[in-house]
Design brief:
Blueprint lengths: L3 E10 L4 E10 L2 E7 H4 L9 E4 L4 E4 L1 E6 L1 E2 L2 E2 L5 H11 L4 E8 L4 H14 L7 E2 L2 E4 L21 H11 L3 E6 L6 H11 L2 E4 L6 H9 L4 E2 L15 H8 L5 E4 L7 H10 L5 E4 L14 E2 L2 E6 L2 E4 L5 E4 L3 H10 L5 H16 L16 E4 L5 E6 L2 E5 L2
Helix pairs in contact: 2-3, 3-4, 6-7, 9-10
């Protein structure tokens, strides 16, 4: 039975522009209309319309986190669909309406089991939707392993790749690769046929290596600047290639630590705004309020927004959420709010594509929506027209 919801009197970011004093009408899981308050009464909405007054809060397309390992004590490496579904439920608390559960390289049979867990969770979500797995390896560089375990990184192996694809049954969205590895061209062509977005990362590629990768279709990059060959005046490397060529998209972990705020300002000058994608790269204990905090099978603690290994005080990884990332982009890095929201919703939707009908608030699109106030507090999260989170 058809039901209409009206989010009334907000500042709407459509994905194109900000529209103050505007309302959004949702019907049957889709955006039905976006209209100024002054013209709202002329629409003659049904009498049983549910009207939610947002009192000037920001109404934006739901955030899409394309690179996340875990949250609230649940992790993609748990190897079961229940953990992925718990992640889905947790993420709506932070304005996320879709995500790509991300896997580290690990022992082959467990890697397959984790891919199958993501596959089996698709379609059963009670919160954020799953837009396919993100495989962060295993065909990446041991020289640039970062926080990942190098013993599970391996040369390109097409037989194993075919096993990953078979296990996923069409549910791999993104794969991080090192363009310098032998056999990468064949892998890239295979992934293109499978609809898998190739991202350069954990890579020691030279500029020439990266250009070969671009020719084969590697047009995205994983947590830009982190775990990749640095810019050098005699060899621009991976970083230089990504900055030079405007059509290569890049992820940014906007916690102020993984990338210095000044570097984000530089990035805005050299990259088109629609090619910058906000991600969290969040680990299992993100947002966890009780119990022992564990990440990558090691006990950690949270310090200044980062997880640190308890054993040796080494940085273990990110504790970022998407709403905090948006806030940081605006308040710490000087990014205009509309551009920060592009990085959190429109841009990731465009990168993974697949005819996704979200990322914008426009008639006909899926009603994946986040509402937050001037203090970046989530007031409402809606997934395909269903309210999944609402502040009291």
């Amino acid at each position: 039975m058809s039901h209409t919801i009206c989010l009334r009197n907000g500042t709407v970011f459509t994905g194109i522009a900000m529209a103050p004093q505007t309302s959004v009408v949702i019907r049957d899981g889709k955006i039905a209309d976006v209209v100024s308050n002054s013209k709202l009464n002329s629409l003659h909405l049904p009498k049983d319309t549910t009207t939610i007054y947002v009192n000037g809060a920001i109404i934006a397309p739901g955030f899409i986190d394309t690179h996340i390992h875990g949250i609230h004590g649940f992790d993609t490496s748990d190897g079961n669909p229940e953990s992925i579904l718990e992640m889905s439920k947790a993420l709506v608390n932070y304005g996320v309406t879709a995500f790509c559960p991300t896997l580290y390289p690990q022992e082959h049979s467990k890697f397959i089991r984790c891919i199958e867990a993501i596959r089996d969770a698709v379609g059963k979500e009670e919160g954020a939707r799953i837009f396919g797995a993100n495989l962060e390896g295993p065909f990446i560089s041991r020289e640039k392993h970062g926080a990942l375990d190098p013993k599970y990184m391996r040369p390109v192996n097409m037989k194993k790749m075919e096993e990953y694809v078979e296990a996923a049954r069409g549910h791999i969205a993104i794969m991080t690769v090192a363009p310098e590895l032998k056999g990468m061209h064949e892998l890239a062509l295979y992934c293109a046929k499978q609809g898998i977005v190739m991202a350069a990362g954990h890579s020691d590629a030279t500029y020439e290596d990266m250009m070969e990768g671009v020719k084969a279709g590697i047009l995205h990059s994983t947590h830009f600047f982190n775990a990749m060959r640095r810019l050098h005046h005699r060899d621009p490397g991976v970083v230089g290639a990504i900055m030079i060529y405007p059509n290569i998209a890049c992820e940014v972990i906007a916690d102020g630590y993984h990338v210095h705020p000044a570097i984000v300002k530089l990035l805005q000058r050299v990259k088109p705004v629609h090619k910058i994608v906000l991600v969290t790269d969040a680990l299992k204990p993100t947002g966890q309020n009780s119990g022992k905090l564990m990440a990558n099978n090691e006990e950690v603690y949270c310090k200044d927004g980062l997880f640190v290994r308890k054993a040796d005080d080494t940085i273990a990884g990110s504790a970022l959420t998407m709403i905090k990332g948006v806030e940081n982009l605006v308040r710490l890095m000087g990014v205009p709010l509309d551009d920060a929201l592009r990085m959190a919703s429109c841009n990731p939707a465009t990168v993974i594509s697949r005819q996704i009908q979200t990322g914008y608030i426009m008639p006909g699109r899926d009603a994946d929506i986040v509402v937050f106030d001037q203090d970046y507090k989530i007031k409402l999260t809606m997934v395909k027209g269903q309210i999944r989170k609402m502040a009291e």
